[in-house]
UniProtKB/TrEMBL annotation:
It holds the Pfam family MFS_5. This is Major facilitator superfamily (MFS) profile domain-containing protein. InterPro entries: MFS_trans_sf (IPR036259), MOT2/MFSD5 (IPR008509). The chain crosses the membrane at residues 16-34, 69-89, 101-119, 154-178, 228-246, 271-292, 304-326, 338-355, 361-381, 393-414, 426-445. The lineage of its organism: Eukaryota, Viridiplantae, Streptophyta, Embryophyta, Tracheophyta. The keyword Transmembrane applies. Keywords: Membrane, Transmembrane, Transmembrane helix. The keyword Transmembrane helix applies.
Amino acid sequence: MTVLIDSSIWEPNPSLYFFIFISCFFSIAFFPHFSRTNKSLSPSPFDHGISSSSSSSSSSSLLRFQRKFLFVFSLASVMEGLWSVFGEFELAHYGVSKEEMATSLCVGYGAALLVGTFLGMISDLIGHNKACLIFCILHLCVGIWKRIMPHPSIWLASICLSLASSIFSFSFEAWVVVENEKQGHGQDTLSDTFWLMTFFESASLIGSQVLANWLLGSNPETGMVSSYTAAIFLAMIGIICISKAWKETTQNAPIKDYGISYTLIFSDKRMWLLGFAHACLQFSIAVFWILWAPTLVADGRAVYLGLIHPCLLGARMLGSTVFPWLLSGPSSLRTEDCLVYAFIVLGFTLSIVAYDYQEIAILVSLFCLFHAVVGLIIPSLARLRTMHVPNELRGGMISLSLAPANAAILFLLMQRGYYQKIENSTMMAFAALGLFLAAGCMHLLKQWGKQPYQNWHEL
């Protein structure tokens, strides 16, 4: 008698994609109505009695500005996502062992820690559009290197892509904030730009996966080479668009004054709280993306990871659409209040995952919840930076806040990859602990209240 063993591969229900798409559509479609209702009852604190004609002209200028920026930002997001689609498959294709993969990750995070930490301050001095150009040039160099070399160095690629990711994390946000102020748009308009950035970034990452899979086709080797060509093409378009988009004026303040301003800013405890919360969020996101696939395929489970990845990014898109509802919807909440509860939810979510539930559907549901809340937190933290961080120092403050996250990830990767002293669940638990600490930081920030920084030029 023969025993048949069910070897089906788990995949998400197609209705999940439909639910995420419909939810995003209705969230965006109905928000303007409820937002106008809310504003009629409670005027925005940013309104300053602008006339209808000037308001219409300003709105048209703002839309042109947002569309131009979001196009460039989406293009950069596709470049970022294109390299991460193949992951270990690409490295294994070139004969890279598991130990060498772990080494390349450590090298990348080491470069982000030692060099990327200071790129934000350099960006503040030379101009953020130049930093965005460097981002595209790094992607262009990696694409050409992999295109012409039969066996490209994974260390060099890891260093370049890690530095590009560091620039991506601060340069575009700092650029749009400075340019928004230069064009005379109010701070309230930045809130819309922030959640749109998260929304379009997630959509672009899904688009990069679709593009890479389409280029892959039936021949993996030819498909990967085609993806390198696509990366080169996108990088060249990015360089052209950024060069022609805005002519940013660099700061006239000398480096000495710039250093003095940082000394004064660091004396503000709110900066430390905001920076530490951002570091904890980035640390948890990095830990998740390193461990989500091993967690799902633990104990030999067969899962279509390529079908789950769009669900996670779609959940983040949905979470980003919730941000304007909480900010200026029918029951608007203070940003710090939202973040306290959001970080607590994230902490509990990763705490449950740390126990390694065996049911895949439960894990995928928790992963989607995690990304939905992340989609809410990212624009919320950007809005708080607008309140507390001077625009002249924004890039440097973001890159400095990433240093603890990169250091913690590098430490855990070395402990896990080389010494085998910790388990994946322990790394998840550390990430959960960091999120609870971030919630405490937001609670303290809420207690101290919103006290705007002084103009550092006058200090």
